[in-house]
Amino acid sequence: MTKRKKRIGILTAGGDCPGLNAAIRGVGKTAIVEYGMEVIGFRAGYSGLINNDYIELKEAQLSGILTLGGTILGTSREKPYKLVGEKGEPNAKPDHIIHNYENLGLDALICIGGNGTMKTANMLSKEGLNIIGIPKTIDNDVWGTDVTFGFDSAVFIATEAIDRLHTTANSHQRVMIIEVMGHNAGWLALYAGMSGGGDIILMPELPHNIRSVCKKIEKRYEDNKAYSIVVVAEGIEHPKTGSAASYLSDAITTYTGIETRETVLGYIQRGGSPTPADRILATRYGFFAAECIAKECFGTMVAVRDTRLEAVPLDEVGGKTRLVEPTDPMIEIARKMGVSFGDEYL
Ligand code: F6P
Hints:
Elements: E1 7-12, H1 20-34, E2 38-42, H2 46-51, E3 54-56, H3 93-103, E4 108-113, H4 115-126, E5 131-135, H5 151-172, E6 175-180, H6 187-195, E7 200-202, H7 210-222, E8 228-233, H8 244-256, E9 260-264, H9 276-294, E10 300-305, E11 308-313, H10 314-317, H11 329-336
Parallel strand pairs: 1-2, 1-4, 4-5, 5-10, 6-8, 6-9, 7-8
Antiparallel strand pairs: 2-3, 10-11
Helix pairs in contact: 1-9, 5-6, 7-8
Bound molecules: 6-O-phosphono-beta-D-fructofuranose (F6P).
């Protein structure tokens, strides 16, 4: 009797990031070439799974996508388990998902996404579906792994932006504020701030005092450093409506009288081709996810811990966020080099 080919599904959910196609390719090529599996891709994240909207992914379709930004499958922020109505009732979407999974004869489903995606993936795993998660996000805040793909590319783009702000800040002797993404986690602000030589880095994890920020800027002027670069995560707490950058710009101008300009980097930091490091990471994750299916290591998320690939239980991951600890070694390095986190004079 010939053995039935395994059939697997892939989806990409949540905000997009560079490296998604490299991960799809890593899964697909390993599954097809090494294990002879059939692969289908669901369109637009969990929406495709709910609506049975999918495409067959043959090896030919996986060629030429390694360097492409975004995701060939599309994505959405669909949350199938979100309660509906005034009373918060469950909806039928999870039932549609289970029906489609079974009807398509799937042996496993790979969910590529961030924290929200992993939470849903864990719930589907508890329903009895064979799930493997792959962590991605420019925010680098997925619990259970040391690093997500997308992060390195976003740091690269933000660093380039900061480099460009340096020259114009110097010419005009201004304070330049650059706002990067990160609602809850300051990884991107911290790493782009350090690689771009920011003077002040503000992150959601470290409450800042605006007078500390201004004192640092004034001190730099006294020390003949006529311009300053402030890198801020979008999610810092502040008293105004509007962007973190515009709040800082107003406050710095008011307290110091120094000319200040703001830049909100926005979606540019999420678009375009992945860096080599992200291509490699996404490829490793994709490969390892296919290996996990072959070994039937379900209900897990692939992760990198101390540079090694591991499969961590989705139960440990779902619903958590990996924030920057105040004791993070990078923060210690920065402080010892004179970088301010706006909390020095609290
Ligand atoms: O991908 C993560 C993230 O970039 C956050 O840092 C950001 O706040 C959010 O997505 C915004 O994305 P969207 O507007 O697509 O919901």
